[in-house]
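Contributing new records

If you add data, match the layout below exactly. Sequence lines come first and carry their own label; structure lines follow with theirs. Keep one chain per record. Anything else will be rejected by the validation script.
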Amino acid sequence: MPVRALLGAAAAVLLLAAPASADARGTADAYETVTVDPTARVAPDGTVTLTGTYRCTGGTGPVFVSSSLRQDPDAVRYGVNGTRAICDGVERRWTNTGRPATATTFHSGPAHVEATLMELTTDSGLPLPRFHAHRGQAVTLTEG
Protein backbone atom coordinates (compact mmCIF):
# COMPACT_ATOMS: atom_id res chain seq x y z
CA MET A 1 0.00 0.00 0.00
CA PRO A 2 1.47 3.43 -0.92
CA VAL A 3 2.60 5.59 2.02
CA ARG A 4 0.19 8.42 1.07
CA ALA A 5 -2.78 6.04 1.05
CA LEU A 6 -1.67 4.55 4.37
CA LEU A 7 -1.36 8.02 5.96
CA GLY A 8 -4.76 8.99 4.55
CA ALA A 9 -6.37 5.86 5.98
CA ALA A 10 -4.74 6.38 9.38
CA ALA A 11 -5.78 10.03 9.42
CA ALA A 12 -9.36 9.10 8.52
CA VAL A 13 -9.51 6.58 11.36
CA LEU A 14 -8.20 9.18 13.79
CA LEU A 15 -10.62 11.75 12.38
CA LEU A 16 -13.56 9.46 13.03
CA ALA A 17 -12.36 9.05 16.61
CA ALA A 18 -11.79 12.80 17.08
CA PRO A 19 -13.44 14.31 20.12
CA ALA A 20 -15.85 17.21 19.73
CA SER A 21 -13.26 19.53 21.31
CA ALA A 22 -10.16 20.57 19.43
CA ASP A 23 -7.75 18.81 21.77
CA ALA A 24 -8.39 15.69 23.84
CA ARG A 25 -6.24 17.17 26.63
CA GLY A 26 -7.96 20.59 26.64
CA THR A 27 -8.81 23.48 24.35
CA ALA A 28 -6.38 24.14 21.54
CA ASP A 29 -4.88 27.59 21.03
CA ALA A 30 -7.48 29.88 19.41
CA TYR A 31 -4.73 30.87 16.98
CA GLU A 32 -4.80 27.36 15.50
CA THR A 33 -7.46 26.95 12.80
CA VAL A 34 -8.57 24.78 9.93
CA THR A 35 -11.12 25.86 7.31
CA VAL A 36 -12.93 24.08 4.49
CA ASP A 37 -13.69 25.80 1.18
CA PRO A 38 -17.44 25.81 0.40
CA THR A 39 -16.95 24.14 -3.00
CA ALA A 40 -15.27 20.77 -3.62
CA ARG A 41 -14.67 18.88 -6.88
CA VAL A 42 -15.55 15.38 -7.98
CA ALA A 43 -13.96 14.01 -11.17
CA PRO A 44 -15.74 11.62 -13.56
CA ASP A 45 -13.71 8.70 -12.09
CA GLY A 46 -14.98 9.52 -8.57
CA THR A 47 -11.84 11.25 -7.33
CA VAL A 48 -12.71 13.99 -4.84
CA THR A 49 -10.64 17.13 -4.18
CA LEU A 50 -11.18 19.05 -0.94
CA THR A 51 -9.41 22.32 -0.07
CA GLY A 52 -9.14 24.90 2.67
CA THR A 53 -6.66 26.66 4.93
CA TYR A 54 -4.92 25.90 8.22
CA ARG A 55 -2.71 27.59 10.77
CA CYS A 56 -0.93 25.97 13.72
CA THR A 57 1.98 26.54 16.06
CA GLY A 58 4.18 24.42 18.27
CA GLY A 59 3.92 21.06 16.54
CA THR A 60 6.69 18.82 17.84
CA GLY A 61 5.61 15.68 15.98
CA PRO A 62 4.28 15.17 12.47
CA VAL A 63 1.11 17.23 11.86
CA PHE A 64 -1.50 16.47 9.20
CA VAL A 65 -4.68 17.96 7.80
CA SER A 66 -7.02 14.99 7.43
CA SER A 67 -10.43 15.14 5.80
CA SER A 68 -13.54 13.09 5.25
CA LEU A 69 -16.65 13.46 3.12
CA ARG A 70 -20.21 12.20 3.07
CA GLN A 71 -23.22 13.09 0.94
CA ASP A 72 -26.03 11.30 2.72
CA PRO A 73 -26.50 12.53 6.32
CA ASP A 74 -26.91 8.90 7.45
CA ALA A 75 -23.93 7.60 5.46
CA VAL A 76 -20.45 6.70 6.62
CA ARG A 77 -17.79 9.40 6.21
CA TYR A 78 -15.08 8.48 3.71
CA GLY A 79 -11.50 9.60 4.31
CA VAL A 80 -10.01 11.76 1.57
CA ASN A 81 -6.27 11.37 2.23
CA GLY A 82 -4.17 13.73 4.32
CA THR A 83 -1.69 16.55 3.84
CA ARG A 84 1.43 17.16 5.92
CA ALA A 85 1.16 20.49 7.75
CA ILE A 86 3.81 23.03 8.70
CA CYS A 87 3.18 24.53 12.15
CA ASP A 88 4.92 27.90 11.96
CA GLY A 89 1.97 30.23 12.65
CA VAL A 90 1.48 31.10 8.98
CA GLU A 91 -1.92 30.51 7.34
CA ARG A 92 -1.40 27.96 4.56
CA ARG A 93 -3.58 26.18 1.98
CA TRP A 94 -4.29 22.44 2.08
CA THR A 95 -5.56 20.15 -0.67
CA ASN A 96 -6.60 16.53 -0.16
CA THR A 97 -7.45 14.35 -3.14
CA GLY A 98 -8.65 10.77 -3.09
CA ARG A 99 -11.23 8.24 -4.12
CA PRO A 100 -13.11 5.90 -1.77
CA ALA A 101 -11.80 2.35 -1.84
CA THR A 102 -15.38 1.04 -1.88
CA ALA A 103 -17.98 1.16 -4.62
CA THR A 104 -19.34 4.43 -3.18
CA THR A 105 -19.60 7.18 -5.76
CA PHE A 106 -20.00 10.87 -5.15
CA HIS A 107 -21.93 13.18 -7.44
CA SER A 108 -22.60 16.90 -7.86
CA GLY A 109 -24.67 18.37 -5.08
CA PRO A 110 -24.60 19.04 -1.34
CA ALA A 111 -22.16 17.20 0.90
CA HIS A 112 -20.49 17.55 4.30
CA VAL A 113 -16.75 17.72 4.96
CA GLU A 114 -14.89 17.22 8.24
CA ALA A 115 -11.31 18.51 8.41
CA THR A 116 -8.96 18.00 11.34
CA LEU A 117 -5.54 19.43 12.05
CA MET A 118 -3.93 16.61 14.04
CA GLU A 119 -0.46 15.92 15.41
CA LEU A 120 1.02 12.54 16.26
CA THR A 121 2.78 12.87 19.61
CA THR A 122 4.92 10.26 21.34
CA ASP A 123 4.75 11.73 24.86
CA SER A 124 3.56 8.37 26.21
CA GLY A 125 5.90 6.32 24.02
CA LEU A 126 3.11 5.47 21.57
CA PRO A 127 2.02 7.72 18.70
CA LEU A 128 -1.20 9.34 19.94
CA PRO A 129 -3.25 12.11 18.34
CA ARG A 130 -3.24 15.70 19.58
CA PHE A 131 -5.99 17.71 17.92
CA HIS A 132 -5.01 21.28 17.03
CA ALA A 133 -8.25 22.28 15.22
CA HIS A 134 -11.39 20.74 13.74
CA ARG A 135 -14.03 22.01 11.32
CA GLY A 136 -17.21 20.51 9.91
CA GLN A 137 -18.76 22.29 6.96
CA ALA A 138 -21.47 21.89 4.36
CA VAL A 139 -20.01 22.05 0.85
CA THR A 140 -21.21 21.81 -2.71
CA LEU A 141 -19.60 19.12 -4.88
CA THR A 142 -19.14 20.22 -8.47
CA GLU A 143 -18.03 18.15 -11.45
CA GLY A 144 -14.60 18.90 -12.73
